[in-house]
């Protein structure tokens, strides 16, 4: 495992130094792209898993944090500019990746700010070892879209295998990543201000979805195959086992089922929380509001 600097021409970022971390999984080398901006104590930014997942959705928040921290933001394996091989994407991959990455890049417990589905992976690593000094979870989730909609594991598995198939899978994936569908999904539960969902914004999101191999990790997320826990009690149990400070940021317009899960989380003792405008994409839509909400927790 090693890290390399990426040339400016090969890297699309938010103004930081873009590097690649070469990581091995089951005798296959994956290229994981990450970006570093600012100086100071290290802070790891983890984007949410989604069809459009990329570190760039954390870019403005990274720029706001950079005067105070050395911010490191990643593209998860299978997403963004990182390698997207046709693996059977599952929690073990991301659990091991996060543990290896943190160990390789940082030499002291760090602050971590994680969005969406990254929450479970951060909590699991925090319970396993002293990787983090404090944790901020932004609109945390633990259950993928299809299971949240009530699909059984059997149905979700069938959908996943269909999307993974060579010809029909590519067609199904393209139907679910058209610019009109992406715009619909953003309006439905990601952003709250429709004026921010411009054609240029959606075009950039669409471009992310059209990279070679993009459908494999995306299908795993949508069908619940990246759910690191499968019961609310397991998710809450991780939080109850924490020994480091935790803060949770909730969007006041979060989808009802997701909001119920977040409410159960913040009802636990010792969990600091705040409700701000926005929904599941609050950190991209309202990054300055997020920073204002968490700065006392981060800087204390």
Mean model confidence by pLDDT: 94
Helix content: 40-55%
User: How widely separated are the two ends?
Assistant: 35 Å
List SSEs in N-to-C order.
EEEEHEHEHEHHHHHHHEHEHH
Question: What does the radius of gyration come to?
Answer: 18 Å
Structural class: alpha/beta
Helices and strands in order:
Layout: E1 2-5, E2 17-25, E3 28-37, E4 41-46, H1 59-65, E5 69-74, H2 91-105, E6 110-115, H3 118-128, E7 132-138, H4 145-148, H5 153-164, H6 168-175, H7 179-190, H8 199-209, H9 214-222, H10 232-240, E8 246-251, H11 256-266, E9 271-276, H12 282-285, H13 287-299
Quick overview:
The protein is an alpha/beta fold and 300 residues long.
Folded structure, characterized:
The protein is an alpha/beta fold and 300 residues long. Helix content is 42%, strand content 20%. It is built from 13 helices and nine strands. The protein has helices at residues 59-65, 91-105, 118-128, 145-148, 153-164, 168-175, 179-190, 199-209, 214-222, 232-240, 256-266, 282-285, 287-299, and strands spanning 2-5, 17-25, 28-37, 41-46, 69-74, 110-115, 132-138, 246-251, 271-276. The protein has a nine-stranded mixed sheet with strand order 1-2-3-5-4-6-7-8-9, with helices on both faces. The longest helix has 15 residues, at 91-105. The mean pLDDT is 94.
């Amino acid at each position: 495992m090693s890290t390399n600097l990426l040339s400016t021409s090969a890297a699309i970022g938010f103004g930081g130094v873009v590097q690649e971390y070469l990581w091995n999984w089951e005798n296959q080398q994956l290229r994981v792209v990450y970006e570093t901006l600012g100086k100071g104590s290290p802070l790891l930014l983890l984007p949410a898993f989604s069809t459009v997942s990329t570190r760039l959705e954390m870019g403005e928040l990274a720029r706001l944090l950079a005067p105070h921290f050395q911010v490191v933001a990643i593209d998860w394996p299978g997403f963004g500019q990182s390698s997207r091989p046709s693996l059977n994407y599952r929690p073990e991959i991301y659990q091991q990746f996060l543990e290896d990455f943190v160990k390789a890049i940082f030499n002291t417990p760090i602050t971590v700010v994680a969005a969406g589905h990254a929450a479970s992976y951060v909590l699991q690593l925090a319970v396993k070892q002293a990787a983090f000094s404090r944790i901020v979870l932004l609109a945390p989730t633990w259950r993928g879209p299809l299971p949240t909609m009530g699909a059984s594991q059997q149905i979700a598995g069938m959908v996943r295998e269909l999307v993974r198939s060579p010809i029909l899978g590519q067609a199904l994936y393209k139907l679910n990543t058209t610019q009109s569908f992406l715009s619909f999904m953003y309006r439905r539960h990601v952003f709250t201000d429709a004026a921010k969902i411009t054609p240029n914004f959606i075009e950039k999101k669409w471009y992310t979805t059209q990279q070679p191999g993009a459908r494999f990790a995306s299908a795993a997320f949508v069908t619940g195959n990246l759910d690191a826990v499968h019961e609310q009690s397991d998710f809450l149990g991780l939080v109850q086992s924490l020994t480091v400070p935790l803060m949770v940021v909730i969007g006041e317009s979060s989808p009802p089922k997701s909001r119920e899960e977040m409410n159960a989380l913040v009802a636990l003792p010792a969990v600091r929380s705040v409700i701000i405008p926005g929904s599941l994409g609050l950190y991209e839509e309202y990054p300055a509001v997020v920073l204002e909400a968490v700065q006392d927790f981060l800087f204390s």
